[in-house]
Design goal:
The complex is a heterotrimer.
Chain A (H helix, E strand, L loop, with lengths): L1 H8 L5 E3 L15 E3 L8 E2 H14 L3 E3 L3 E6 L4 E6 L2 E6 L3 E3 L3 E3 L15 E3 H9 L8 E5 L3 H12 L3 E6 L9 H8 L6 E2 L2 E7 L6 E6 L12 E4 L2 E4 L3 E3 L10 E2 L4 E2 L12 E3 L10 H19 L8 E6 L3 E5 L2 E3 L4 E7 L3 E8 L4 E8 L5 E5 L6 H5 L2 E5 L1
Chain B lengths: L1 E5 L8 E7 L2 E5 L4 H12 L2 E2 L2 E7 L5 E5 L4 E2 L3 H8 L3 E3 L7 E3 L9 E3 L17
Parallel strand pairs in B: 5-8
Antiparallel strand pairs in B: 1-2, 2-3, 4-7, 5-6, 6-10, 9-10
Chain C lengths: L1 E5 L3 H10 L5 E6 L15 E2 L10 H20 L3 E2 L3 E5 L2 H17 L4 E4 L1 H7 L9 E5 L3 E3 L1 H14 L3 E4 L3 E7 L2 E7 L4 E2 L4 E4 L5 H7 L8 E10 L10 E3 L10 E4 L5 E4 L3 E2 L12 H14 L9 E11 L6 E4 L6 E5 L5 H19 L25 H10 L6 E3 L4 E2 H9 L5 H8 L12 H12 L25
Parallel strand pairs in C: 1-2, 1-13, 2-9, 5-15, 13-21
Antiparallel strand pairs in C: 3-8, 4-8, 5-7, 6-7, 10-11, 11-12, 14-17, 14-18, 14-19, 16-17, 20-21, 22-23
Helix pairs in contact in C: 1-5, 1-8, 2-8, 10-11, 10-12
The chains are: A alpha/beta, B alpha+beta, C alpha+beta.
Chain lengths: 394, 129, 483
């Protein structure tokens, strides 16, 4: 939506294709607050944030086509085949932005042994049922994964009378924002068990109990530490996966981010095709996603108008202690917004942009909280001499 | 009386310890004044913004998501949740509408955070149908 | 004449269909909510060549014949059949001897397109095969299918030809008079009277059902197999059904493509000590061994990024290690089709022929052919498989063809509604008939939508919708009552 808005402000004709009956994506079911602080300078709930963007889009005459499923895209010709209840049609675009977001890691892919009863679901499904479908999907639940979605649902379910037994996290540190640990777990005395995971599932028809065990740094269960806990729901918050598979034959994917490889103009490896949001890397703040969408929209619009906005480019390399890193390429024409995730928690450290000789200190850094750096494009010139940018954390 | 809390004002997340002797509070571990105030408030009367749902009658959706515009006494939330279970509001509802005038006895309202139109009406492209 | 088939798996449904070619009433009884939800849905989905089975055995004869019949089944029942071929691989001259044995066996069984290949041709047939293998037995007539669709399609066709298909109700007893079963009693209390023939095709429960009528059959032993399903991206590495050398415990742990483009690893082969048909559990050891064996055959196949899910299947065996398909001695109108282990799926159409065309006459049943038997069913419309140009007119006829519910597998609401009209009553029922929820997100985006559509079409509240069995509730109560 941010992308459509920003593209429209450049004066081009924008079509936003939405698969569901209305836009907003997961914002519609995220009734908690924490959105919009940077984008609208207000703390909003998900639906409010979506509503503001929709009002703004309507003012800019963005054409929203809902219930449209993109079946196939010829990425080079920028032609999309779309299915909708109104018919099957093709759209030719001057520029394309792919904002397909992410999906939740499904339970099956964890290969947890045991039965296959009903009652095991991703946190987003539980959220959909409680916040939109008006149904409670559990009576007594355990949450696997301390990512933000899991923490938010721990609170939501508890408020609605579900007994949330505990949250398990296989890492030795929590996966979500500290604020959520406090307001979703500590507030309700829900224990968080670190270095613990589910090692077995039992139930005929519906979940009856789970076996949990402590694990070591390699996630191998520690013998003698397993216990059986009776629950009828296992809510999974085991990570998000960027939705890139449909395009990975045509667009380059960064293997560490598992998302599209893009530059700071959000352009992908194919000219005129841009990508932003969770399909580039999993971001922790919706505001970052909106900001990236905004940049993508602007550049896509300019591209479609034939305005050349790209300058010289250099690749970005990861140095020590860095896992997720966006973007993968620096374009000299645009400001550089860098997003970094640490490989492991660090009490203190310095993010170093080597060739630019820029440093940013931080303390109490954790992988779950992205570090953002913005470098004005005037300062990017030195990169041309080195032909690359190396980002590392010391 | 003693306690530890994690301050959430900024991403540092200082672990602040609070000790109360008589009417004196001893607060340690915070790196800034905001943290001291946060710890004091958290100990005396923690407050939270409440986000939840209220039933909607005759609407295109069964629930309208709501929020308190400011934090309310955390201790009262459980009780408040019981009360709101039986409330309902009739469609149409607009973003920002007051769904409940005073939810906590201190004049804090519950405001709608989403629009719900009447059944039979056409939903704007705001909400899933 | 009234025939009753107990059991709605691939065996029971094909028998019912075969029976519906003749005059008389046919009733099929399936205790689960949908057809093909027992053994039929949890196996390797392979149409075997038929070279593993001893020529003197029933399975030897019926497997080769069944393999041949699948082309016709594909045409008539519109089930997908893909003859991708299979290879049994061997490292050295010692192991080559085993391949030669299988070749001779296969020739005796009448298996088509069977030959031994050397290293070069092996690597042409399966480029990613581990370099330790130098020989293979290649069988071009082996293939893969969608087993539950065979059962579902067979039941639809049987119904079209007059059969009554009962689901969600099982046989709990019956009345035997003068050495014949005269009536059957179902769990719901319903009684089916005036029965002439009863065919026991109840999968894991063949012994249990036989005992209801005091019929002696070989005791059942349960064998469990665990599988891992991999993402479509793994399919670049596998073109054929890849078998290791067989051992006493079976055909081994394989690597093979699935009919919808994924890859399957497994199964293990573990004998269960007691009769515990509900023990469809996977184990840490079993899954580990499946991964190891997969890697040994196709290096690189075991990539955690590709894991989609794991599951277990159980098959029934008797100590004779052969099918047990016989008319009872104790009762003169009861046939047990039991111990249908591998290659049960392959043999299924031949088993139906054998039971109806050979066994029934041998116990004195005379069959009169129907003149108006229609062997065909309509091709199921799958948006995903249609060319773009064809979809426009489909959407015009029904806009719900353009409303895609399962985004991973491109399944439209129209297809889901049709599956419910065809008999699906649970989320799994819809899944298995439409493939919605079988994709990458494993139902993360669409399971609640499927539940909603079921609720609407069946006129039930969402809390009454089930995943599969009656205990598999999805949602409890409402969040807010007053709305």
């Amino acid at each position: 939506m941010a992308c459509a808005l920003s593209a429209a402000k450049e004066g081009v004709y924008v079509t936003l294709l939405e698969r569901e009956s209305s836009v907003g994506g997961v914002l519609n079911q995220c009734i908690h607050n924490g959105f919009g602080l940077q984008f609208y300078h207000q703390e909003l709930t998900g639906p409010e944030f979506a509503s503001r963007l929709i009002d703004d889009m309507n003012m800019e005459n963005v054409k929203i086509i809902s219930q449209s499923y993109v079946r196939d895209i010829d990425v080079r010709k920028r032609v999309a085949q779309v299915l909708s209840p109104d018919g099957a049609y093709e759209i030719q675009a001057g520029a394309l932005v792919i904002s397909t977001g992410a999906r939740e890691r499904p339970f099956g892919s964890l290969l947890i042994p045991g039965d296959r009863p009903a009652g095991v679901m991703p946190a987003g499904v539980a959220q959909r049922y409680v916040n939109l479908e008006n149904r409670i999907p559990a009576r007594k639940a355990m949450i696997l994964g301390s990512g933000d979605i899991g923490l938010i649902m721990a609170r939501r379910l508890t408020l609605e009378g579900v007994e949330v037994v505990s949250v398990l996290e296989r890492m030795s540190y929590p996966g979500g924002l500290t604020r959520n640990i406090v307001q979703c777990l500590e507030d309700f005395d829900i224990p968080l068990h670190l270095s613990t995971t589910v090692t077995g599932i039992s139930g005929d028809g519906r979940l009856r109990s789970v076996e949990i065990s402590k694990v070591d740094e390699n996630f191998t269960p520690v013998p003698g530490t397993s216990r059986t806990i009776d629950v009828d729901a296992l809510i999974l918050s085991a990570g998000l996966l960027p939705q890139v598979e449909d395009f990975s034959d045509n667009l380059e994917v960064d293997p560490m981010n598992r998302g599209f490889l893009v530059s700071n103009t959000c352009e992908s490896s194919t000219e005129g095709v841009f990508a932003a949001g969770n399909n580039v890397a999993i971001f922790d703040l919706v505001d970052y996603v909106a900001a990236e969408g905004w940049i993508a929209g602007r550049h896509a619009a300019l591209f479609s108008r034939g305005v050349n906005t790209s300058g010289d480019r250099v690749p970005v390399f990861r140095g020590k202690n860095i896992s997720v890193l966006v973007p993968g390429i620096v374009d000299m024409e645009e400001h550089l917004r860098l997003y970094i995730r640490l490989r492991k928690p660090m009490e203190k450290g310095v993010v170093v942009l080597k060739e630019l000789k820029i440093e940013k200190k931080f303390s109490y850094g954790v992988p779950s909280e992205m570090i953002q750096l913005v470098v004005n494009r005037d300062k990017l010139q030195p990169l041309m001499n080195y032909g690359k940018l190396t980002v590392e954390v010391q | 009386m003693e306690g530890h809390i994690t301050c959430v004002i900024c991403p540092v997340g200082c672990k602040v310890s609070v000790r109360k002797e008589g009417v004196q509070y001893t607060i340690e571990g915070n790196r800034c004044a905001r943290g001291e105030e946060y710890a004091r408030n958290e100990l005396m009367m923690p407050k939270r913004i409440l986000t939840t749902s209220i039933g909607v009658s005759n609407g295109t959706l069964p629930l309208v998501s709501v929020k308190t515009p400011r934090p309310i006494d955390r201790a009262r939330i459980k009780e408040i949740m019981k009360e709101i279970k039986n409330l309902s509001i009739a469609a149409p509802v607009a973003v920002g509408d007051t769904v409940v005038e005073d939810i906590d006895g201190e004049g804090t309202p519950l405001l709608a955070t989403r629009a719900v139109s009447c059944n039979g009406g056409r939903e704007k492209t705001t909400l899933p149908t | 004449m009234r025939s009753v088939v107990i059991g709605g798996g691939v065996i029971g449904t094909l028998i019912a269909r075969q029976l519906s070619k003749f005059e008389g009433e046919v009733i099929l009884i399936e205790k689960r909510e949908d057809l093909g939800q027992g053994i039929t849905k949890a196996n390797s989905a392979i149409i075997h060549g038929g070279y593993d089975d001893p020529p003197a055995s029933l399975r030897g004869r019926l497997c080769a014949r069944g393999n041949e019949l699948y082309d016709r089944l594909a045409r008539e029942l519109k089930v997908p059949v893909n003859r991708i071929g299979s290879i049994v691989v061997a490292r050295n001259e010692e192991e080559l001897k085993k391949l030669e044995e299988l070749l001779v066996n296969g020739q005796a069984n009448g298996v088509r397109d069977l030959r031994i290949v050397g290293r070069e041709e092996l690597h042409e047939l399966e480029p990613a095969i581990s370099s330790v293998f130098n020989y293979a037995l290649y069988c071009g007539s082996a293939g893969i299918t969608e087993p539950w669709m065979v059962a579902i399609a067979a039941s639809i066709n049987a119904a079209r030809n007059g059969a009554e298909i009962i689901t969600g109700d099982g046989v709990v007893g019956g009345r035997v008079e003068e050495g014949s079963i005269k009536s059957l009693r179902l769990a719901s209390g319903r009684e089916i009277k005036n029965i002439d023939i009863v065919i026991n095709a109840t999968g894991l429960f063949y012994e249990k059902v036989a005992r209801l009528f005091d019929v002696e059959v070989p005791p059942v032993k349960l064998r469990r197999g665990e599988y891992i399903l991999l993402d479509k991206r793994a399919s670049d590495l596998v073109r054929r059904i890849v078998f290791p050398l067989p051992t006493a415990s079976g055909k081994g742990r394989l690597v093979l493509p699935t009919i919808d483009g994924g890859v399957l690893l497994g199964p293990t082969s573990e004998e269960l000590q007691d009769f515990t048909p509900q023990e469809l559990k996977t184990t840490a050891e079993g899954l580990y061994s499946v991964r190891q064996s997969g890697k040994e055959l196709i290096p690189g196949i075991d990539s955690p990024q590709w894991y989609v899910k794991s599951f277990a299947g159980i098959r029934p065996e008797s100590s004779g290690k052969d099918f047990y398909i016989k008319a009872a001695c104790e009762i003169d109108n009861f046939i047990t089709v039991g111990a249908i282990r591998s290659p049960g799926l392959t043999a299924a159409p031949a088993i139906a022929e054998y039971v109806v065309l050979e066994l029934l006459p041998s116990i004195g049943v005379s069959l009169e052919e129907k003149r108006n038997f229609d062997p065909f069913i309509e091709e199921q419309t799958r948006i995903k498989e249609l060319p773009f140009e064809a979809i426009s007119s489909l959407i015009e006829s029904d806009p719900l063809y353009g409303k895609i519910i399962c985004q991973c597998n491109e399944v439209s609401e129209a297809e889901i509604v049709q599956s419910i009209r065809d008999g699906a009553r649970t989320i799994d029922g819809v899944k298995f008939r439409t493939r919605a929820g079988f994709g990458r997100c494993q139902g993360g985006f669409c399971s609640w939508k499927i539940a909603s559509i079921l609720s609407r079409e069946l006129g039930k509240d969402l809390s009454e919708i089930r995943q599969n069995v009656p205990e598999s509730w999805i949602t409890d109560g409402k969040v807010r009552e007053r709305c």
